Amino acid sequence: MRGIAKAFPGVQALADVSLSLGGGEVLALVGENGAGKSTLMRILAGGLAADAGEILIDGKRVVIDAPRTAERLGVGMIYQEFNLVPQLTAVENLVLGDEPTRRGFLDTSAALERARRIFEELRIAMPPDVPVARLSVGQQQLVEIAKVLSKRARIIVMDEPTAALTENEIERLFALVERLKAAGKGIVYISHRLEELARIADRVTILRDGRVIETRAERAFPEDEIVAAMVGRQLDAHYPALPPIAQSAPVVLDVRSLSRPPQIDGLNLQVRAGEIVGLAGLIGAGRTEILRAIAGADVPRGGEILIDGRVARIRSPIDAIGAGIAFITEDRKAQGLVLGMSVRENVTLAHLAQYVNRDLMIDRAREARTTQRMIDELDIRTPSTEQLVKNLSGGTQQKVVLAKWLIGTVRVLLFDEPTRGIDVAAKAEIYALMVGLAQRGSAIVMVSSELPEVLGMAHRIFAVRGGALVRSFAHDEATPDAVMLAAAGAAA
Amino acid sequence: MTAGARQPVKISWLRIIAAATVFVAFIAAIDVAAHGAFLSRGNIASVLSQISYDFILAIGETFVIITAGIDLSIGSLVSLCGVVMAIVANSLHLSGFLLIAVTLVSGLAVGALAGYVNALPVVKLNLPPFITTLAMMQIALGASYMLSHGRPVALVSPAFGNLGYGGFFGGLTGLLHVQGNLFPIVWMLVVGLFFSTLLTRTRFGRYVLAIGGNEEASRLAGVDVARAKTLVYVISGVCAAIVGFLYMALFSSGSPQTGTGNEMLAAIAAVVVGGTSLMGGRGTIVGTFFGALLIGSLNNAMNLLHVDSYLQMVVLGAVILLAVALDELRKRYL
Lengths: 492, 334
Description:
Distance between the termini of chain A: 45 Å
Helix content of chain A: 25-40%
Largest interface: A-B, 46 and 30 residues
Order of helices and strands of chain B: HHHHHEHHHHHEHHH
Strand content of chain B: under 5%
Oligomer: heterodimer
Largest sheet of chain A: 6 strands, mixed
Number of domains of chain B: 1
Strand order of the largest sheet of chain B: 1-2
Strand order of the largest sheet of chain A: 6-9-10-3-11-12
Number of strands of chain A: 22
CATH class of chain B: Mainly Alpha
Shape of chain B: globular
Structural class of chain A: alpha/beta
Number of strands of chain B: 2
Radius of gyration of chain A: 24 Å
Helix content of chain B: over 70%
CATH architecture of the largest domain in chain A: 3-Layer(aba) Sandwich
């Protein structure tokens, strides 16, 4: 790709971007959210037209004007959000759009054969007749990769492929990438997880504000220099120092024998004012379910929850909010925000009653003032309070979610994957905000699949397995190995 | 992408100017073609009074569609409420304003109750509103025919007649030298203004839009989703009852046939042409008004131009499709 440029109304998304990819090579494309990675890849995949520049494949100039053209030229995309039909099986998804037929009818045995060949080539085991909705995220991703390969892709773009995978699945994915490399495929690998790059990338290209900042061989590119190039400045230590908890700090959140079948049975958890508790565990361990039960998102069946020593009867999110519990969900777009609404409307949604005047009308000016205050306080990067949330970057959206809770009286904050899919700089800001909230006397429970994050950000860490807290670690004694071992249980 | 410097304010001005230009050009063209008959004072009043029925129906439907629902029962509810009100009016020993008020309240109660019943399975069992309101469409129509024995229930009291060409509105009509009935126009303005304010300025309205935009996020933000959704169907039933009342006053009888023609589809068409998204989360009452106005003007214009009435149906369908397609293109490129 040479000299690619693309402008959106009011923003130059890409300016004179050039990059090259050889066969059998993994090129890591890194940059903050909004740096232009997705735009660049959408141009390559035919989803967007560039304003300027050209694309050459095998030295020949090509015009990619539609996704179909890209496919024909051997460009395959694996997006962060999968493009699978959940009700169809792995095989049906694999041949979707190109089903083998015999006399006008679907030829299922030919489809099965084709799928078997590809799975064999990739050396992966896949149940052929189970709807993909019932497969694990890792398996679904393998189906995506197989689908791309079945269309004879030679250039494969993977966008945040490990974001939702477990450790084991990541290992399998890396092994697969190695095999694809050996088979001469060129791979563009987009990731926020810098520690992966050393494992997998041959070269690293850094994008910032729509420009290529630098391309280097991975070996010659230490992680701190990558981060510095990404954000354009040297970042301080990754995690902020955790403030000590006062000896006298009272228990704010007291969960007593909380039950919610089938996952949670008799859970006890105390969190003191100013304390951050981290829950670590594998996917499916019940971490999210614990938070959902406390937040009233799922109705608990038994047990009680005390906030500041008072029993809070929580049967719905309304009750939980009334008791001072804020739930920052793992999926911002599906559960945290109304994307088609403005920053202002999202920020006040959970506390709208406070913005209603005596004539029953919403006081928009007051809403806007509060929102502006939060924009300043949390450094939310939006042109105005009226910007639609869907136009903001992931990190900025996460701050809007936080603002939504912080305008009320919050005693307990439940963070589920607080930094998923957001860039390094925004992560550091979210961490600082969490510490600030703890310092002001809130109790915080955090769930994260990124173990270093849990270890770095929590005073106490619990290993979670089967919906139960199986072991507790103090901040200083927690090591990744020990926590993972406890979370994985006897099986590890 | 980064927060683009897109300025929603500017864009919406551009939209309004574009829409207004198209509208004015359209009206001017028709007026010229009809030798000035289209823009005469009498014709304008008559178009407005014709669209008021569909528009009021469409107001309730707008609320429902913004929550990504649909209400198919409104036509049948017009019929049922009209019949019930006629029966109630005939059985009351009241007269004048009191009679009108009590009759209206009885109709509103029936409409609200039917809307509540529509909503129950939607919020409690998560049934699709298409099904529950389809069932209500049958039930209400059947009830309407049962109560009326299939015949129009003629109003005994002359009080309702005065709402049309007699009494206050009749006098106003004469004073303004217009033909047509001003009574439904006044209702349309009052009901439209009330519900537009409800949608854009109150907590309930904000919740309706938020639920349509993202129901789960709204629930987790403490929005009482079940209550808001229930109210939305109640509003739809109430709007149907108002329309039933207006038709009853117009015809001096409650007929089970009223509302069972094109009314429901015309209302949905007005909502959609007015820019409300069937996917939910977006829509305005003002937009719905212009949707109803466009469809009503077109109907009227085709009558003035002596377009064959069967051809009118074809044209109307095509225009609905065109309007929605244009709106979609506008969203993409403007």
